[in-house]
Amino acid sequence: MATEGEVVEKQSSYTYWVRTATEEAAPLPTPRKLTAEDISKRSLTNSNSLGSVWNQAGTWEERNLNTWASNRIKELLSSLGTLELSSGKATIDEVSKCSGDVESRLSDDKDLTADEKVRIRRDLQSLVAPIRMKLQEFEQELKDR
């Protein structure tokens, strides 16, 4: 059982998040709704700053762009058209899901000659280049938003 001295020591120990306000603590911030006057002052004084009207400091403002990004990636990849390969043509007809990483591997189980494996690897590399360019285009659009 704890003695009275131990209880006093635990009560006065430092805690990072204080749950009860003390006299010397700073007052809690109180939210204030923006008025029409606040908004008009904001538009007159700092019309070229980024972010919302309430964000006058220009601090980070998080926006969920998942839907836009997924749709844009699908649109960019679908716009590739026909890609010429050494053994034919390839097209991206549909992008059903956008997630994960890209990896390509040739299985040793296939009965392919060394020349066929080299040709397939070159075809895969030539297929990746335009996809990479479209994804770089997407990355730049994302930075510009």
Automatic annotation (TrEMBL):
GO molecular function: ATPase activator activity; protein-folding chaperone binding
Tree of life domain: Eukaryota
Record field: transmembrane: none
GO cellular component, one term: cytosol
UniProt record, GO biological process: protein folding
Stretch forming the signal peptide: none
Domain Activator of Hsp90 ATPase AHSA1-like N-terminal per the UniProt entry, residue ranges: 62-145
PANTHER family: HEAT SHOCK PROTEIN 90 HSP90 CO-CHAPERONE AHA-1, LD43819P
Assigned protein family: Belongs to the AHA1 family.
Protein name: Activator of Hsp90 ATPase AHSA1-like N-terminal domain-containing protein
Species: Asparagus officinalis
